[in-house]
Amino acid sequence: MKLHRRVLVLGGARSGKTRIAQQLAEASQETRILIATAQGLDEEMRERIARHRAERDSSWQTQEAPLDLADALRAQAGPERVVVVDCLTLWLSNVMLDGRDAVRESKALVDALEAVAGPVVLVSNEVGQGIVPASALGRAFRDEQGRMNQRIAQICDAVVFVAAGCPILLKPTPPLSLKLG
Predict the structure, then answer these.
(1) pLDDT (tens digit, 9 = 90+) per residue, 30-87?
(2) Rounded distance, CA 110 to CA 121, Å?
(3) ∠89-55-70 over CA atoms, to 5°?
(4) Domains in the chain and their CATH numbers?
(5) Which candidate in 4, 5, 19, 52 is catalytic?
(6) Could you tell me if 121 and 85 are in contact, meaning their C-beta atoms sit under 8 angstroms apart?
(7) Which residues 6+ apart lie within 8 Å of 46 measured at CB?
(8) What is the pLDDT of residues 104-147, one digit of tens each?
(9) DSSP secondary structure letter of residue 60
(10) Is-catalytic flag, 4?
(11) Do 151 and 8 meet the contact criterion of CB atoms below 8 Å apart?
């Protein structure tokens, strides 16, 4: 199966996004690389990371890039490789908590994605469907995550939304036709 050049896999927490992204990558004959953005800063996160590792077989190579994702993409993507980035939500959180300029970093990521030669599957949370965060930082994160998801969706060849483990193709879409009256 020939993978689209860039695919965005969106969904809520525990929706099955990572599993779908891995399946897309594993359907190709390319070398498989996971760029992981999570940081094992506490025991619960270390356990999550271990579970995700156990879900991948030995055909996967892993690179950790909690902050410098654009550089990692440029270094890892190539014509005979498929790269899965898991996940943009943790990456953006890392960027903001590190005090970096999230808008500039997101733009650098989009620029890197536009330039890479091989297929890339990006995993990201759709965070705009829940409650309004109580803190200013939470609202700023939600807003930037939504804007970044939109920019990345624009440059992706395909966008898949995952709900309850079920993938729903959002892009490409057939022409919209509405008959009224």
Answers:
(1) 799 999 998 888 999 889 888 888 888 888 999 999 999 999 999 999 988 999 999 9
(2) 13
(3) 35
(4) 6-171 (3.40.50.300)
(5) 52
(6) yes
(7) 40
(8) 999 999 999 999 989 999 999 999 887 888 899 999 999 999 99
(9) E
(10) no
(11) no
pLDDT at 119: 94
How is 87-139 classified by DSSP, letter by letter? -HHHHHHHHHHTT--HHHHHHHHHHHHHH-SS-EEEEEE--TTSPPPSSHHHH
Q: Are 36 and 64 spatial neighbours (Cβ–Cβ below 8 Å)? A: yes
- Under 8 Å CB-to-CB from 173, ≥6 apart: which residues? none
CB atoms < 10 A from the CB of 84, how many?
A: 26
Distance CA 179, CA 77 (A): 44
Q: Give the predicted TM-score (pTM) of the model.
A: 0.90
* Contact (CB, 8 A) for 124 and 9: yes
Q: Tokens 């890039």 correspond to what residue?
A: 65
Cis peptide before 172 (omega within 30 of 0): yes
Q: Which of 86, 83, 77, 73 is nearest to 39 (CA)?
A: 86
Residue 138: φ, ψ to 5°: -60, -40
- Nearest alpha-carbon partner for 168 in 11, 27, 2: 11
Tell me which residue has tokens 């950790």. Answer: 64
